[in-house]
Amino acid sequence: MSPYILFVMLTSLGLGTTLTFTSSHWLLAWMGLEINTLAIIPLMTNKHHPRAVEAATKYFLTQAAAAAILLFASIYNAWYSGQWFIQDMSSPVSTLMTLAIAIKLGIAPMHFWLPEVMQGISINTGLILVTWQKLAPLALLMQISHNIKPELLIILGLMSTIIGGWGGLNQTQIRKIMAYSSIAHLGWIISILHFMPALAMVNLFIYLIMTITMFMTFNLLNSPTINTLAVNWSKSPILAATSALALLSLGGLPPLSGFMPKWLIIQELTNQELAPTATLLALSALLSLFFYLRLSYSLSLTIMPNTHPQTLNWNMKITTPLPLSLMMMMTLTMLPITPTIISLF
Amino acid sequence: MTHILFTISTAFMLGLTGLTFHRTHLLSALLCLEGMMLSLFIALAMWSTQNDMMIFSSSPLLLLALSACEAGLGLSLLVATSRTHGSDHLQNLNLLQC
């Protein structure tokens, strides 16, 4: 893509999210979400491949429908209560608004578009989809979180973690696995949203770091399936070693940073007398951990002399880019500074 | 007020049902999306007349501008789909399963 067009699209993406962040009127927030949808579609259909066009069509239909439902809920709220202020949403449509934002985010049971759309687009666009496109709807959800029934958010969170864990078990394509990983992590984020939004932001922050690490790793290694991951130890041994640990951090194992949000969320849910919910969330994290372990097995435990049926590639030297090193370091080592991270939010 | 709100809500829900239960053509889904946006346009226009406040009179136009952009995007995706998949039949959009 020409650098000028890429610049325009990326600036529009930034503009849309910033517009939604800074707005207190529902119409402006809706406009920011629409601009985000408009800006990412050309990035998706950059290569005119049938899978990319199909993914863009499915993404467009779901996001446009969700934005229309969001606008309908805000207009109903304006008719009902006479004002457009985002934080004063207290009409019966707050549930509908939450469901519309859940469609935009890909939270179960409205998650069916996410694995297919992730499969059809390139890994870099998938990174934008999973990280940047989640920020604006989550900002809206955080602003109305005190007006939503907490049972709705708990149910959505539980379903997301369980479906995210279960759905990823039968996948061999890396992008679909990362899509189900996104669904599961978003489930953790929204389950604590009503009780302590600061913890939801901590979880989002750590999740963004871990996901950016994994996506940049998969982009560098250029492997679309689990089979092709096995030959990457020869391309970059350091990446084979550290990305195994990064995957375990995604699974939420101590002493890596991924344990931090899970620990804090389970503690807060227990303080709110929701210990069975916390137990179910923790048990469903085991399902995700299984497919992360499968990925890390292929990545780093099939080094010589353990053989793998995949044919070896040419041993081209690849240099790890600096952002990947930075994100990898943050993925693995941030657990001891948990109080600092909490004080940031 | 409640009669108007009921009518507009019914119109929106009918369009949403048409969008979710689309059967054969992608174009019918896009048409239902446009129907939903039209019902929201009418709702916004009636809201500013209900309140006798002229300050928000231009909000239907803002909605119309964004929804026209979205409709253009949908149509361009329809053209791209018919170029890659041969038609706009929704049964042909099955390349991404597993």
UniProtKB/TrEMBL annotation, chain A:
Transmembrane segment boundaries: 56-76, 96-114, 126-146, 152-170, 177-196, 202-221, 233-254, 274-295, 322-342
Keyword Lyase found: no
Key words of the record: Electron transport, Membrane, Mitochondrion, Mitochondrion inner membrane, NAD, Respiratory chain, Translocase, Transmembrane, Transmembrane helix, Transport, Ubiquinone
Predominant location: mitochondrion
Residues of the NADH:quinone oxidoreductase/Mrp antiporter transmembrane domain: 23-283
InterPro entries assigned to the protein according to its UniProt record, in alphabetical order: Complex_I_Subunit_2, NADH_DH_su2_C, NADH_UbQ_OxRdtase_chain2, ND/Mrp_TM
Domain of life: Eukaryota
Keyword Metal-binding appears in the UniProt entry: no
Any GO MF annotation of the entry: NADH dehydrogenase (ubiquinone) activity
One GO process term, biological-process aspect: mitochondrial electron transport, NADH to ubiquinone
EC category name: translocase
Topology of this chain in the membrane: Multi-pass membrane protein
Domain NADH dehydrogenase subunit 2 C-terminal: 289-342
Reaction equation(s) it catalyzes: a ubiquinone + NADH + 5 H(+)(in) = a ubiquinol + NAD(+) + 4 H(+)(out)
EC assignment: 7.1.1.2
GO cellular component annotations of the record: mitochondrial inner membrane
Subcellular localization, as worded in the UniProt entry: Mitochondrion inner membrane
Matching PANTHER family: NADH-UBIQUINONE OXIDOREDUCTASE CHAIN 2
Sequence similarity: Belongs to the complex I subunit 2 family.
Protein's job: Core subunit of the mitochondrial membrane respiratory chain NADH dehydrogenase (Complex I) which catalyzes electron transfer from NADH through the respiratory chain, using ubiquinone as an electron acceptor. Essential for the catalytic activity and assembly of complex I.
Protein name, entry field: NADH-ubiquinone oxidoreductase chain 2
Lineage start: Eukaryota, Metazoa, Chordata, Craniata, Vertebrata
TrEMBL record, chain B:
Listed name of the protein: NADH-ubiquinone oxidoreductase chain 4L
InterPro entries linked: NADH_UbQ_OxRdtase_chain4L/K, NUOK/Mnh_C1-like
Gene Ontology BP, a term: ATP synthesis coupled electron transport
Lineage start: Eukaryota, Metazoa, Chordata, Craniata, Vertebrata
Chief place where the protein resides: mitochondrion
Bilayer topology term: Multi-pass membrane protein
Transmembrane regions listed in the UniProt entry: 28-49, 61-80
Organism: Erpetoichthys calabaricus
GO cellular component, one term: respiratory chain complex
Catalytic activity: a ubiquinone + NADH + 5 H(+)(in) = a ubiquinol + NAD(+) + 4 H(+)(out)
